[in-house]
Amino acid sequence: MKRQSPSGSGGTDSAADRKQATETEPLLRAENLVKTHQGVGTAVKAVRGVDLSVGRGEFVAITGPSGAGKSTLLHLLGGLDRPDEGRIWIEGRRTDTYSEARWALLRRRSIGIVFQFFNLVSQLTVADNVELPALLAGYRPSQARKARAELLSDLGLEGKENSTPGELSGGEQQRVALARALVNHPALLLADEPGGSLDSKGTREVLRLLSRFHGRGQTIVLVSHDARMASAADRVISLFDGRITDDATLSREGPRPGGVSGTLDIGG
Ligand SMILES: Nc1ncnc2c1ncn2[C@@H]1O[C@H](COP(=O)(O)OP(=O)(O)OP(=O)(O)O)[C@@H](O)[C@H]1O
């Protein structure tokens, strides 16, 4: 998918930032991430020293049992939550000094996120839900409309433009959420249990769509406890008790679950 820049948007990156952000850098790099959640009278160490690097065009699944720290890690990677320790670089830019506003700008430009429960704005139509991030990122209304129309058509949602999320099935809502996440042509798509609230048909559909966008060069980091979801990825990272316990790269030779070729090749 070709990335486009919005016109007339504010908050440009500094020259030093741009210089840092070379094509040779991994798209995403994290070093020694640590996060403890403070509950009432308790503290839960959810992420305990995670190092991670994701190259452009990779499809990485982060998997592990309930409570392993998957969602916490994904939230850190998307700047939705802050690590207690460690650093994150996105497109070569170090983010640990970023303000909330700066993270929001980075997400608008470079990171699309889909969640288990879609998080669509229930009062807005499908069209408006998808166009909103493009308008916020500074695209002209005509550009936002065009991008929205292309994505909705691509995702089989033509004719649903004027519906509100409540009038759609779960699978349709997740496709709208995917369109919204991709409308700004993000370098990175983060997906947090995107099939988690769908039936098996809906899960297969999301998987098929993620594979399709990955086939067009989209970098994806997916969090799921569901082995079917993980099977669509190039690389499966196992998380247990806040630590990475395995990092397996799929080669593209033999049969692969979900109808895509590949065999497991356990790497370091
Ligand atoms: N806001 C919070 N406050 C306190 N504890 C939290 C909070 N969020 C997560 N936790 C705890 O941190 C640990 C990791 O949670 P997290 O949601 O990251 O795991 P997960 O692997 O995504 O689990 P699941 O597959 O069940 O969604 C769990 O023990 C969880 O109870």
From TrEMBL:
<dbReference type="InterPro" id="IPR003593">
    <property type="entry name" value="AAA+_ATPase"/>
</dbReference>
<keyword id="KW-0067">ATP-binding</keyword>
<dbReference type="Pfam" id="PF00005">
    <property type="entry name" value="ABC_tran"/>
</dbReference>
<feature type="region of interest" description="Disordered">
    <location>
        <begin position="248"/>
        <end position="268"/>
    </location>
</feature>
<protein>
    <submittedName>
        <fullName>ABC transporter ATP-binding protein</fullName>
    </submittedName>
</protein>
<feature type="region of interest" description="Disordered">
    <location>
        <begin position="1"/>
        <end position="25"/>
    </location>
</feature>
<dbReference type="GO" id="GO:0005524">
    <property type="term" value="F:ATP binding"/>
</dbReference>
<dbReference type="GO" id="GO:0016887">
    <property type="term" value="F:ATP hydrolysis activity"/>
</dbReference>
<dbReference type="InterPro" id="IPR017871">
    <property type="entry name" value="ABC_transporter-like_CS"/>
</dbReference>
<dbReference type="InterPro" id="IPR003439">
    <property type="entry name" value="ABC_transporter-like_ATP-bd"/>
</dbReference>
<feature type="compositionally biased region" description="Basic and acidic residues">
    <location>
        <begin position="15"/>
        <end position="25"/>
    </location>
</feature>
<dbReference type="GO" id="GO:0098796">
    <property type="term" value="C:membrane protein complex"/>
</dbReference>
<dbReference type="GO" id="GO:0005886">
    <property type="term" value="C:plasma membrane"/>
</dbReference>
<dbReference type="InterPro" id="IPR027417">
    <property type="entry name" value="P-loop_NTPase"/>
</dbReference>
<feature type="domain" description="ABC transporter">
    <location>
        <begin position="28"/>
        <end position="266"/>
    </location>
</feature>
<keyword id="KW-0813">Transport</keyword>
<feature type="compositionally biased region" description="Gly residues">
    <location>
        <begin position="256"/>
        <end position="268"/>
    </location>
</feature>
<dbReference type="InterPro" id="IPR017911">
    <property type="entry name" value="MacB-like_ATP-bd"/>
</dbReference>
<keyword id="KW-0547">Nucleotide-binding</keyword>
<dbReference type="InterPro" id="IPR015854">
    <property type="entry name" value="ABC_transpr_LolD-like"/>
</dbReference>
<dbReference type="GO" id="GO:0022857">
    <property type="term" value="F:transmembrane transporter activity"/>
</dbReference>
